[in-house]
Structure prediction request, 164 residues.
Amino acid sequence: MPETQEIVINTGPLIALVAGLGDLSILQMYRRVCVPLEVSQELLVGSGTRFAAKEFAEADWLEKRQEALNISLYLLNSLDRGEAAVIQLALNEGISTVCIDEVSGRRVARLHGLSVTGSIGILLRAKREGRLRSIGDVIERMERQGIWLSEKVKRFALQQSGEL
Prediction:
C-alpha cells in the first residue's frame, strides 16, 4: 500500500519534530501538509516566542490555513481546539490521514474514519525512505527538549526502525 501524500498536522507533532530534528523539513516528504489556523494560533501564541514557533514560521511550504474552521460541537466537546480543527479540516478536505500524538485525538480521528500517524510514525516513514539515519538519536534529542515518550512507544519505534 502506498504511503499517504497528504496530511493534516497538529501542534504536538510539530513541536516534537522540531525538538528532535531542529526544523520541520522532514515533513517535505509529503506532497501536502495542511495546518489549521487553530494549530497555527497555538504555536504562535505570545508573539511567536513559544518553542518551535520560529521553525514553524520559517516553513513557508506548509499549507497554513488563514480562516477559522466551523468545527462540529462533538469534536469541540471531545478534544482541544487544535485536535478538533485537525480532524475537521481533514474531513472537510477529504484528506484521509491526520498527524496527532495525543491518545484521545487519535481515537476520535479513527472513529471518524481517518488514518492516524504521529511524530514517531513520521520518523519511521523517514527512516524507511532513507531520509533519517537514526530514530534513537532523534528520540534522545526530543527527550532532552522535554518531549515525553512512554517506554512502550520508544521500544516500538526502535523495533520498527531496526535499531533495537
The first strand starts at residue 6 and ends at 9. The chain has a mean pLDDT of 94. The longest helix spans residues 81-93.
